[in-house]
Design brief:
Shape: globular
Structural class: mainly alpha
Protein name: Endoglucanase
Radius of gyration: 22 Å
Catalytic activity: Endohydrolysis of (1->4)-beta-D-glucosidic linkages in cellulose, lichenin and cereal beta-D-glucans
Domain Glycoside hydrolase family: 28-483
Helix content: 40-55%
Number of helices: 20
GO biological process, one term: cellulose catabolic process
Strand content: under 5%
Keywords: Carbohydrate metabolism, Cellulose degradation, Glycosidase, Hydrolase, Polysaccharide degradation, Signal
Length: 501
């Protein structure tokens, strides 16, 4: 029989779906395929022969030329045409983590997911080719944002920005090191030579990040703020980078670094947030695996932090403050692009549930009587995924191209302007404004793109380009969604409430 606390959680999960008349049976495998396809629509540089998003063409082929380096390739992170290194590196780290933990559930999409990851890591290798230097951005964000034009047409300055010994950026550099280290694990068997190259570079980049400390938003404030200003400080990224280097290399130096800097770098900060700017929750979940697997009791405090974080996601089972949920059941945090919180936190729930399952452990939220099982965590994560795919009051999928109803007017330049094939003549900076202001659906489907979604507690969504906070897709919203879709495609049914063990 389920304990009263477990019954309460089950009831809360049931109530969270009360606004939805009937639950749909989702094709998670199809959603996974489309989510990976989205990354092809975000590619910068020379597109490969196998490019499937045919309305896109080559773009930004001379990126880096003004600085004497090759910075072509990589991803446009959202609906504009700037390449921001900070969110791109975080995207790569999360893509890697998902493949490391759940790669076996990707099925035929595993190879495609690795290719999507490699498009990012190939670029990050270019961006870190110069010792003690990381190229962190290509494009003048303010000039770019004053235009509405296709990436194939852009004529705004492709200014190159970097951090180096005189202009430190420990946050972006350490995140880049984390991405390279995590990816080295993904490619260890598929491409050993590439894996070694990634790990070696990660070691060098992390050493630079740690030795020359400072926030890149201080060194490059006018260029990177407010778009990707580091509001949380660089300390969490240093721990995050060390954690991934420890996982990838198993070198004791990184283990010692984490323990030595645990307090100084804020590992004990109980912040129920995880994203490109704030890594605290992710650090605690990642390192907790070592404790739960019985490999390293050295990190017990990280498991306590992870448990505390998870409990904040389970209202009704814990007396501590918790995150809010909309009437329709969507995890809600104040700010722009709410889905970035939904997908990243849901992934942490899934990852931690996996670690707990293998350790035959639960999350104690206020004592043994209020322990949450791994299945409870998976049900919460699945509820969020199902909301994204259409189990919500509007009966709308927030993934473009999935389901019968989805956003038609996403805030995305390439998607909203006729393609080069349909309109070969250049569409200039200001000429694109007519497409931005149009109420017509976007002519090019950016299949698989997940938009910012409802940004208030009423589950409302305007489907308008101008409301970018709700209608713009980003790579870092899709990246943590991939393993969730892969896992639920392999495990579409979960035990019923009351059968959590």
């Amino acid at each position: 029989m389920a304990s009263p606390a477990r019954a309460m959680v089950a009831l809360l999960l049931l109530l969270s779906t009360a606004a939805v008349s009937t639950a749909q049976q989702h094709d998670y495998g199809d959603a996974l395929r489309k989510s990976i396809l989205f990354f092809e629509g975000q590619r910068s540089g020379r597109l490969p022969p196998g490019q499937r998003v045919r309305w896109r063409r080559d773009s930004a082929l001379t990126d880096g030329a003004t600085a004497g380096v090759d910075l072509s390739g990589g991803y446009y992170d959202a609906g504009d045409n700037v390449k921001f290194g900070f969110p791109m590196a975080f995207t790569a780290t999360l893509m890697s983590w998902g493949l490391i933990d759940f790669g076996r559930t990707y099925g035929p999409q595993e190879r495609e997911a690795r290719e999507a990851l490699r498009w990012a890591t190939d670029y990050l290798l270019k961006a870190t080719a110069t010792p003690n230097t990381v190229y962190v951005q290509v494009g003048d964000a303010f000039r770019d944002h004053s235009c509405w034009e296709r990436p194939e047409d852009m004529d705004t300055p492709r200014t190159v920005y970097k951090v180096d010994t005189a202009h430190p950026g420990s946050d972006v550099a350490a995140e880049t090191a984390a991405a390279l280290a995590a990816a080295s694990i993904v490619f260890r068997e598929a491409d050993p030579a590439y894996s070694t190259r990634l790990l070696d570079r990660a070691v060098a980049v992390f050493e630079f990040a740690d030795k020359y400390r400072g926030a890149y938003s201080s060194s490059l404030h006018d260029a990177v703020c407010p778009c990707y200003c580091d509001y949380d400080g660089y300390q969490d990224e240093l721990l995050w980078g060390a954690a991934w280097l420890h996982k990838a290399s198993r070198r004791r130096v990184y283990r010692d670094y984490i323990k030595k800097n645990e307090v100084a770098l804020g590992a004990s900060d109980s912040i129920n947030e995880f994203g490109w700017d704030n890594k605290h929750a992710g650090i605690n979940i990642l390192i907790s695996k070592e404790v739960l697997m019985g490999k390293d009791s050295f990190f017990t405090s990280f498991r306590q932090n992870a448990d505390d974080f998870i409990c904040t996601l389970l209202p009704g089972i814990s007396s501590q403050d918790h995150v809010d949920y909309s009437p329709g059941g969507l995890l809600f945090k104040v700010g722009n692009s709410n889905m970035q919180h939904v997908t990243s936190i849901s992934f942490l729930l899934l990852a931690y549930s996996s670690y707990l399952s293998h350790a035959n452990a639960h999350v104690p939220c206020g004592g043994a009587a209020a322990a949450a099982s791994p299945v409870v965590l998976r049900r919460v994560a699945k509820r969020q995924v199902d909301y994204i795919l259409g189990d919500n009051p509007l009966r709308m999928s927030y993934m473009v191209g999935y389901g019968a109803r989805f956003p038609q007017r996403i805030h995305h330049r390439g998607s909203s302007i006729p393609s080069v094939a349909a309109h070969p003549a250049k569409i200039g900076c200001k000429a694109g404004a007519a497409y931005y202001g149009s109420t017509a659906p976007n002519p090019n489907l950016l299949v698989g793109a997940v938009v910012g979604g409802p940004s208030n507690v009423t589950d409302a969504f305007p489907d308008a380009r101008a409301v970018f906070q709700q209608s713009e897709p980003t790579t870092y919203m899709n990246a943590p969604l991939l393993p969730l879709l892969a896992y639920f495609s392999a495990h579409p049914s979960l035990p019923q409430a009351g059968n959590d063990d």
